[in-house]
Amino acid sequence: MGTYSMAQVDKTYGDAIECLRRCCYQWGLKASGRPVGHHQVWARDAMISALGGRFAQDKQIEDAFQASIALLKDHRAPNGAIPNNVDCATLRPNFRAYADGGLWWIIGSAMLAPDPDVTREVLRWYEYQDVDQSGLLSMQEASDWQDLFCTRGKGLYLNCLYVIALRCAAELFSGDEAERLLRRAGLVAERINAYFWYAGDNNTLRHISNSFSTEGSPLRDSMGRSREAPEKRYLKEERYYLPYLGFRALGEWFDSFGNILAILAGVADEQQTGVILDFISRYSLDNWPLRSLTPAIQPGDADWRSYYGSLNAPHHYHNGGAWPFLGGFYVAALVKAGRGEAATLALRNLAELNQRGQFNEWHHGETGVAMGAQDQAWSAGMYLFASECVQRGRVPLL
Questions:
Q1: Whole-Å CA distances, 286 to 251, 355, 378
Q2: What pTM does this model have?
Q3: What domains appear along the chain, each with residue ranges and CATH number?
């Protein structure tokens, strides 16, 4: 990897635009543009694609983004929840993997079609997901972008995304309402750092302390009973944000998307940003930019599930597969951190991966072999976004 010239990088930019065009449909931007693929308008896929696709200056693509925003809004639930996706054949909304679609809709609509009233309604639904009044969102298992994986409880990715969405929403309002949203974003960021950042000290109790229902000291509750903490088995001496916090339980793997979003959301400070990016490089997660996690979950591990089947085998799909759209976020994080040379190299690697897989959905995490659907919209859209970040030397999130 890394052998691509800047001319090949530029060619991939044009190819990404053509890929997005193939994903355009009368109801919006389909997740996939080939006969075999995902033929729904997905909230997260469409809005993530819009981060870079809005720079294409292509009316067909712009119309597809506008149609996507409208379709998702029109099929929201009575309580304000944005659907996970809407089927293009039946126009039937699906709410199963519900957790992050509304946040991406807020971000995408703020960029392209501001709607303060509906944004307010969607945000109210998210406030109800702060079930324990900790300031952090909770979710059911497998209900965010990793919709066939064990992330549950308070997810890192979900809450970092919440910070970004709150700040984007604040731009639509003024006065007390904008200030309230910014204060909430600050609170969420503060709680993420307090609960999720693992300091390499083998102390897991502080990460789950708020899941005990009785007050007391860090080691014992108010009745003198010992507080049990899960044993740290992996990455004991590393520093990073943990992927999820559950009931007296936590995830141990390094969640690439969650940690990258912590950087882009400004949750991670300069030192934490450096630690995260150095971790990614040291564990070669960017060989195929970017593998979703490390270490891969193995059969017999506490977070292994029978429903993983062969799709989520180690180094496949959500379980350590390499996702080009994540590679786009990685390039953006490098730019935000001021690592321009590394960002340019990562962009070249991403161009090569996208050409190899024809903007594939995902690749094998160890071999780089393309294994998902071709012409995946967010693979193309995030390549455009990564290119814009490198060219501008900053992250144009809005």
A1: 21, 17, 18
A2: 0.97
A3: 6-211+227-392 (1.50.10.10)
